[in-house]
Amino acid sequence: MLKHNEPMASHCSLRAGGLAQDFYTPESVTALVDFLKHTTQPLLFIGLGSNLLIRDQGFKGVVIKLTLLKSIHLDKTKITVDSGATLAKLSRFLLANNLYGGEFLSAIPGTVGGALAMNAGAFGAEFWSFVKQVTTLDNSGTIHQRQVEDFDIEYRKVTPHHTGECFVSATLNFNNPHSNQLIQDLLNKRNATQPIGLPSCGSVFKNPTGHYAAQLIEQAGLKGVCIGGACISTKHANFIINTNQASADDIENLILHIQQTVKLTANIDLETELKII
Ligand SMILES: Cc1cc2nc3c(=O)[nH]c(=O)nc-3n(C[C@H](O)[C@H](O)[C@H](O)COP(=O)(O)OP(=O)(O)OC[C@H]3O[C@@H](n4cnc5c(N)ncnc54)[C@H](O)[C@@H]3O)c2cc1C
Question: Which residue lies with its CA nearest to atom 11 of ligand 1?
Answer without folding.
Answer: 120
